[in-house]
Write a structure and sequence with these properties.
357 residues, 3 strands, heme biosynthesis, mainly alpha, metal-binding, globular
C-alpha cells in the first residue's frame, strides 16, 4: 500500500499514467469536435478558389514534366498539419469531392447527406498519430512541472503556471517536430521504411541533425508564448470563477469557461506569430515535400516588420475571427475533459485507499 501512495502525485492525487490517460481522452474528444469545423472551412475555401486556380508553387519535382501542387494547413484542434495535393489527383477527400455549398450550415448538411457523416472527419486518423502523443506529453509535463515548482518554492506563485506552460510546450514541440517533418516528406509519394530511412539519412548527411527540426523556430515562437499565456490566465480565471461561485473545486463548466476565455486571450495576443508560422509552414511544405530549393527566408521579426509595413497593424492580426472560433472551443473542450478525467481518477484512487483501510 505504501508503494501505491508514493506513486500518486502529492498535489493532484493521481499517477502520471492517469494524467496521460486523461489528457489522451481529452485530445480525442477535442479532435472529434473541432475537426469538422476545419474540414468544412477547407471545403468552402476549395470551392471559392478551385484547385486549378490556387497553386502555392509550380515546380519540377521528379521529372522534366512540370507538375502543379498546392499545400494547405489542416487543424484537428490539437495541432496544425500540412497537406499537399498534386493536380488534384493525390489530394485529400475534401478537395476531390464535387459537392457545391452555399454556406457553412449548408456544407455541414450536404456533406453529411451526400458523402456520409464520416466525411466530416476526413484526414483525421493520420494526424492523430502525432497530435495525441504530443498533447499527452504537453499536458502531463505541465502538471508535473507545475506541481514540482510549487513544491520547491513552497508557495502558490502566479508565475508558476506561466513558466511550467512555456517549458512543457517547448518540450512537446521539440519531440514532435522531426516526426511532423517526416510525415510531410511522406505525402509527396509512397515511401517504404527503407526509402524513408535513406531519405532521412541523406538529409542529415547534407544539412546535419538540426535539419530534422526545420520549422521548429516559428512553431516555438507561436506555441510557447501561447502556452505560457494560456496556463497563466487559465489558473487565474479558474480561481476567480471558483471564488465567485463559492466552490472548493472547479466544476466541468468552470473549467470549460476558463479554458475558452484563456484560449481566446492567448490566441489574440499571439496571432501575429500565427500569421508568420502558417506562412513558414507552407514554405516548408514546398521545400520538403515538393523538393523546391530552399530560399533564404527572413527572420520572424523581419517578416513581422514587413507585414506591418505593407498591411499595417491589421495585417498582423489577419484571420482573427477564424482563429478565435477554432481555438476557443478547442481549448475549452480539451481542458474541461482533461480536468474531468483527473477528477474521475482522483475519486477512484480515494475509493481504493478507503477500501483498503
Amino acid at each position: 500500500m505504501m508503494s501505491e501512495n508514493t506513486s500518486v502525485s502529492s498535489a493532484g492525487g493521481i499517477t502520471p499514467l492517469q494524467q496521460m490517460l486523461a489528457s489522451g481522452t481529452g485530445a480525442l474528444f477535442t479532435s472529434l469536435f473541432v475537426t469538422p469545423l476545419d474540414v468544412v472551412k477547407i471545403r468552402l475555401q476549395a470551392q471559392r478558389t478551385p484547385f486549378s486556380k490556387v497553386l502555392s508553387v509550380e515546380c519540377v519535382p521528379w521529372s522534366v514534366h512540370q507538375s502543379k501542387w498546392k499545400c494547405f494547413v489542416y487543424c484537428n484542434g490539437l495541432m496544425d498539419h500540412l497537406y499537399v495535393c498534386q493536380n488534384g489527383s493525390s489530394c485529400t477527400a475534401w478537395y476531390k469531392a464535387p459537392t457545391r455549398f452555399t454556406g457553412t450550415l449548408d456544407a455541414f448538411v450536404k456533406i453529411t447527406r451526400y458523402e456520409g457523416i464520416r466525411s466530416l472527419w476526413s484526414g483525421l486518423p493520420p494526424t492523430l498519430v502525432m497530435a495525441v502523443p504530443a498533447t499527452v506529453i504537453y499536458f502531463t509535463t505541465y502538471d508535473q512541472l507545475r506541481d514540482y515548482l510549487r513544491c520547491r518554492m513552497s508557495r502558490q506563485g502566479a508565475h508558476i503556471p506561466l513558466v511550467a506552460g512555456a517549458l512543457a510546450r517547448l518540450g512537446a514541440v521539440t519531440v514532435i517536430s522531426p516526426l511532423e517533418l517526416i510525415r510531410t516528406k511522406m505525402q509527396s509519394r509512397p515511401l517504404s521504411y527503407r526509402e524513408l530511412r535513406i531519405c532521412i539519412q541523406s538529409s542529415v548527411a547534407q544539412d546535419g541533425w538540426l535539419s530534422l527540426w526545420r520549422g521548429w523556430g516559428p512553431t516555438v515562437l507561436r506555441d510557447v508564448p501561447f502556452s505560457a499565456l494560456y496556463w497563466f490566465n487559465y489558473e487565474l480565471v479558474k480561481e476567480w470563477l471558483c471564488r465567485q461561485s463559492r466552490l472548493d473545486e472547479a466544476t466541468f463548466m468552470v473549467s470549460f469557461t476558463a479554458g475558452a476565455i484563456s484560449g481566446t486571450v492567448a490566441a489574440v495576443l499571439t496571432l501575429p506569430f500565427d500569421v508568420v508560422k502558417t506562412q513558414r509552414q507552407i514554405e516548408l511544405g514546398d521545400m520538403e515535400t515538393l523538393q523546391v530549393a530552399a530560399s533564404k527566408s527572413s527572420s520572424t521579426w523581419l517578416l513581422l516588420r514587413r507585414i506591418r509595413a505593407e498591411f499595417g497593424t491589421r495585417g498582423l492580426f489577419a484571420g482573427f475571427l477564424p482563429r478565435v472560433i477554432k481555438v476557443a472551443p478547442a481549448c475549452a473542450i480539451m481542458i474541461s475533459t482533461y480536468e474531468f478525467g483527473k477528477s474521475f481518477f482522483q475519486k477512484l484512487n480515494q475509493e481504493r485507499q478507503l477500501s483498503s483501510l
